[in-house]
Amino acid sequence: MAQILLTTLNARYMHTAFGLRYLYANLGDLKSKTRIIEFTIHERPIDIAEKLLQNQPQIIGFSIYIWNVKETTQTIALIREIAPDVTVIVGGPEVSHPPDLPSVCDLVNYVVTGPGEITLPHLCAQILRGKKTTGKVLHGEIVSLDQLEMPYQFYTDEDIRNRLIYVEASRGCPFKCEFCLSSLDKTAKPFELEKFLKEMDKLYQRGARNFKFIDRTFNLKIDNSIRILEFFLDRMSDDLYLHFEVVPDNLPDRLKETIRKFPPNSLQFEIGIQTFDQQIQSRISRRQNNEKTCENLKWLKENTSVHIHADLIFGLPGDSLENFASSFDQLITLHPQEIQVGILKRLRGAPINRHIKDYQLRFNPEAPYNLLSSHEIDFMTMQRMNRFARFWDMIANSGRFLNTVPVILGDDPFFRFLRLSDILYEKAGSTWKIALKRLFGMLFEIMTENLCIPVTDARRVLDKDYRRSGQKGQPMFIKPLLKSVPGKGAANKRQQKHYQ
To answer: Collapsing DSSP states into helix, strand and coil, what is residue 314?
Structure first.
């Protein structure tokens, strides 16, 4: 049993709630009365409510994000009906920007906006003492980072064995990109480096090998970046994997030399490109040296083993299908391993909302508040792009079609893949639950019948990828080849046996 429960609904089991652990670490004497319980959005709200209430808590604190607000609202509504005496507190980005608050805030006792490490313990202590707090919305107190207790000891052994370990060497962001909530920060502030590295060493000694840094600008302060990278180089092992979000136009030579030392399959960079259009960059207050960005991406690809995950956003103010195609095609020439095609979302509190009227931005009223249309993009085009993004993940980002994708893209990457996406949707009737063997067959048909790719070329690349996929049995695209081989000679038998 616990008097206080801290909980959230993660997108997947492998994710861990880093924010809850920070709150728990800073509860002081209340830690002994508190328990962290995590769920996923795939669990039924009524089951979540049951498991929470089994602890007979007095206080339940929910951390709410854009990806879990719907399911969390349903869960809290059930708790209010079943146990109205339980005090419910919510915090997190989705509820931190009054008066722009979601309906879940109407159901709860308190809303804590912004950082909660200092404010939440004070609030819980007052509630447990039976004292009333003035006001429902409390603004989180901001303190210097050296006043916070670090949370890393509160990752469990199960977390370390089976889940992502989130860490942060700095907090905040100095940039003002209007689509991002970090644009509201005044600057980025680093944690005391040696203290942070001691915590990383403790995690490493406990067996942690998958570290995901949530810093918005890992390579902002180069001395710290190099020190952190060298720390992990000294502990390099076959199973160590690091993820960083980096500023694409800030890779000085001494940082490059350190990055170059990392072996394959150990380092991933998430690089936000978003758009190469300079007018849109200026419109959304994004500072990015496009020439330097392209130069650095090319260098990373040619000189390191870094896995590059590059982000683009479709639907920024003034964007159009043709304009996005230009950024996409330019990024394709730089050959990142993954391109995340994101759709613009209306984050509560983000400055991008100032453009809604001028660019006729219409967003889904339900989470994740994705763009439905704009002055330049109609609803049907948005639907096409949603499918494009899904099929791009399924085909290009999955890594299953390394040989096939370049042939599909040809010399007009965006519009050729858009055509493939349109036809694939017509054939499949869905963007989900497409069996891999069926997908191979449909790709062969579209490539040869609609994209004018010679049968021999399509079959050759699909054959290579099919063999890599581990699929058993004979794929649809090989049947014409088998029929064309005369007789029942040894070569024909060997080929057929290969696909059994």
So the answer is: strand
Give ∠ CA 278-280-286 in degrees, rounded to 5: 80
Closest CA to 8 of 122, 166, 142, 126: 166
Give the per-residue pLDDT at 495. 34
- Contact present, 173 and 217 (Cβ < 8 Å): yes
Those residues with Cβ within 8 angstroms of residue 421's Cβ, 6 or more apart along the chain or in another chain: 384, 387, 388, 391, 392
Residue the block writes with tokens 């652990």: 21
Q: What is 155-377's CATH number?
A: 3.80.30.20
Q: How far apart are CA 299 and CA 338, in angstroms?
A: 16
At residue 174, φ and ψ (nearest 5 deg) are -85, -10
Q: What is the mean pLDDT of each run of 10 residues along the chain (500 residues)?
A: 96 96 97 98 98 97 97 98 98 96 97 96 96 89 94 97 96 90 86 97 98 94 97 97 96 97 98 97 96 97 98 98 98 98 96 96 96 98 98 97 98 98 96 93 96 96 93 71 42 35
- Reading the block at residue 365, the tokens are 């009223």
**3-state DSSP: the chain helix, strand, coil percent, rounded to 5?**
45, 15, 40
pLDDT digits (tens, 9 = 90+) for 49-100: 999 999 999 999 999 999 999 999 999 999 999 999 999 999 999 999 999 9
Identify whether the C-beta of residue 21 lies closer than 8 Å to the C-beta of residue 169.
no
Assigned CATH topology for domain 4-143: Rossmann fold (3.40.50)
CATH 3.80.30.20 location in the chain: 155-377
How close are the terminal C-alpha atoms of the chain, in Å?
Answer: 56
pTM for the model? 0.91
pLDDT at 310: 98
Supply the Cα-derived Rg of the chain in whole angstroms.
Answer: 25
Q: Cα dihedral angle (103, 105, 107, 109), rounded to 10 degrees?
A: -170
Whole-number Å distance between alpha carbons of 413 and 330: 10
* Residue range(s) occupied by CATH 3.40.50.280 in the chain: 4-143
Residue 463 CA, distance from chain mean position: 32
